[in-house]
Design goal:
The chain is built from 15 helices and 18 strands. By secondary structure, the protein is an alpha/beta fold.
Length: about 425
């Protein structure tokens, strides 16, 4: 059996977010860490390849994405999906446009959409402008993001600056009239010479409409939200059966821990909430720069506490604190120091018996899964919109003495009590 839908995600938590949405819509889904060497897993309907391409140079992001595409084509996929963040963030030069256009060229198609909307998490698009909750993107916490600050809410303008082709807009008035009206708008934009189109969406119903209109597009690009509307296209063609077991994970055990590397508004609130009920250890980037064994200290602190309940290790700081550290160490060096330390701590925690691990932040999640030798994830039940539990498919070396489940959370996602309630969603 071949895989139906092949997905390429530009970071680890984004990949998990997308995979979770597909499972929620009834597709058996696995997430693979990087482009694999071997054949696709058995008994799956969708594969999501997680890259780390959001903040790398565009040429590198393109090369990695094309390699993922080739593997997915060999796996037999009939439709492809390029997934990026629901806040449309990338480097100032932009990787979304260049990667999308490279994938289009490789697939021999002259048109696709860009829809990062995710209404369940407050990301909506109207008249081409991206809102985070009730605020324009440029007025949200994303304006202070340490790596990818977003200061322009006009997605047409942002994508046009990154793209060679002409960018158009599918306004909400077309979406509200249904999939046929959207398809007609696609045709009109193509006739005008547009190769990419931002699509308005303010509700899940809009996403389902857009998904239906994309049934014949070889490539779809967006956040995870529009994935809600794609599985039904395969069902209508008799290619996908209804499944009630897509999100099942095996029963798990082990100790519990949280590692937070994101400095987003949501994660800062979640860290503060968990600190009210669980012990916490703060990572000091300046101590790391001085060569201190911060990871060793964190593990020595955690070992006696893990038997009593979950522990929290965090590098989450305010924008002002982040900028102060970056001013002393440099943006890249500060981030790399923290990622390496958190990854080392994750390995140590698993060796100490942690079998249920929550990781907050896309860059942090990437570093952790790499350090643990995890090459793939089976997607399980949703904790909050866009964040499921996952089970490691394979481990290398001696990093995992027991089965391991992971919740890889995008920094911006999840309710305030996310860390403390997540355990209740495990079997």
């Amino acid at each position: 059996m071949t895989v139906l839908l092949g997905c390429i995600a530009d970071d680890f938590t984004g990949a998990t977010d997308l995979a979770g949405m597909l499972v929620k819509a009834g597709m058996r889904t696995v997430q693979l860490i990087g482009v694999p060497d071997g054949p696709p897993p058995q008994d799956v309907d969708a594969v999501v390849i997680a890259l780390k391409s959001r903040t790398v140079p565009a040429a590198e992001a393109i090369a990695d994405s094309l390699a993922a595409l080739r593997w997915l084509q060999q796996a037999g996929c009939s439709q492809f999906y390029f997934k990026y963040c629901s806040t449309f963030d990338s480097t100032p030069e932009g990787n979304i446009g260049p990667v999308a256009e490279a994938l289009m060229e490789a697939l021999g198609t002259d048109f696709t959409i860009a829809c990062p909307a995710f209404p369940a998490n407050g990301r909506t698009i109207y008249k081409g402008y991206l809102f985070v909750g009730d605020e324009l993107l440029s007025e949200s916490g994303m304006r202070n993001h340490p790596l990818t600050p977003m200061t322009d809410p006009s997605l047409v303008r942002v994508l046009q600056a990154q793209s060679r082709g002409k960018v158009g807009l599918v306004e909400h008035r077309s979406v509200a009239r249904g999939a046929e009206a959207v398809a007609a708008r696609f045709a009109a934009l193509r006739a005008e010479g547009c190769t990419l189109a931002i699509t308005d969406a303010i509700s899940n119903d809009d996403l389902i409409t857009l998904g239906a209109a994309c049934a014949d597009l070889p490539l779809v690009t967006g956040g995870s939200g529009i994935a809600l509307g794609l599985p039904e296209n395969f069902r209508r063609r008799g290619l996908l059966a209804k499944s009630d077991v897509a999100e099942q994970l095996p029963a798990t055990g082990g100790l519990r821990a949280v590692i937070a590397g994101s400095c987003s508004v949501a994660t800062r609130s979640q860290v503060a909430s968990m600190q009210e009920s669980a012990p916490s250890f703060a990572i000091d980037p300046l101590a790391l720069a001085r060569g201190e064994d911060v990871a060793g200290a964190a593990l020595a602190w955690a070992e006696p506490l893990l038997q009593q309940g979950p522990v929290l290790v965090y590098a989450t700081s305010s924008p002002e604190q982040v900028r102060a550290v970056q001013a002393q160490l440099g943006v890249a060096e500060a981030g790399e120091l923290v990622e390496r330390a958190l990854a080392e701590i994750a390995r140590g925690l698993v060796r100490l018996g942690v079998g249920q691990l929550i990781v907050a932040g896309g860059e942090t999640s990437g570093a952790v899964v790499k350090a643990l030798g995890v090459t793939g994830l089976r997607i399980g039940p949703e904790i909050d919109p866009g964040v499921p539990w996952t089970a490691a498919l394979q481990e290398q070396g001696d990093a995992q003495p027991q089965p391991l489940v992971l919740a890889l959370k995008s920094g911006n996602f999840g309710s305030v009590d996310f860390f403390t309630k997540a355990w209740s969603r495990l079997p």
